Amino acid sequence: MVGIVAADPAGAGLAVGTAGGVVKRVAPDYPQNATDFEVISLKDGDRVVGAVQLAGEDQDLALITSDGQLLRFGAAAVRPQGRAAGGMAGIRLSARASVIWFGAVDPSRWPARAVPATLSW
């Protein structure tokens, strides 16, 4: 488990990103009689790296990879899916890279002026 977010049926849904580069927006049709439920079907070896309750479709989603790539796009570009769905390709990864961060950004507070950097260790 990466984090816990409140399931808000009145909101724009939940956005989830995985280490394998998959992105999913979950339609806000959360079961009212369950205390826990699955929101994404993961492929073997994949894992959730971030989940966020969207305030609105005007937010941007962003993924950062272990090899310094950054992808940022409007949440409205990802069609909401039911809880059983597996999501869609969000970012193409190089052979040994993985997504290390996924989240939502308010474009009115954080204009798209980011420069990815390569880390060496």
Give the SSE layout:
Blueprint: E1 14-18, E2 22-26, E3 48-53, E4 60-65, E5 70-74, E6 80-81, E7 88-89, E8 99-105
Parallel strand pairs: 2-6
Antiparallel strand pairs: 1-2, 1-3, 2-7, 4-5, 4-8
Commentary on this structure:
With 121 residues, the chain is an all-beta fold. Helix content is 0%, strand content 31%. It has no helices and eight strands. The chain has strands at residues 14-18, 22-26, 48-53, 60-65, 70-74, 80-81, 88-89, 99-105. Strands 1, 2, 3, 6 and 7 form a five-stranded mixed sheet that branches. A three-stranded antiparallel sheet has the order 5-4-8, with no helix packed on it. Strand 4 and strand 5 (70-74) form a beta hairpin. The model has no long low-confidence stretch (mean pLDDT 80).
Structural descriptors:
8 strands; five-stranded mixed sheet; mainly beta; three-stranded antiparallel sheet; flat; 121 residues
The helix-and-strand class reads: mainly beta
Distance between the ends: 27 Å
Tertiary shape: flat
Can you count the helices? 0
How many DSSP E strands? 8
Assess the beta-strand content as a share of residues.
Answer: 25-35%
Largest sheet: 5 strands, mixed
Residue share in helix:
under 10%
Mean pLDDT: 80
Secondary-structure element string: EEEEEEEE
Radius of gyration: 14 Å
Q: Could you name the ranges where pLDDT drops below 50 across 5 or more consecutive residues?
A: none
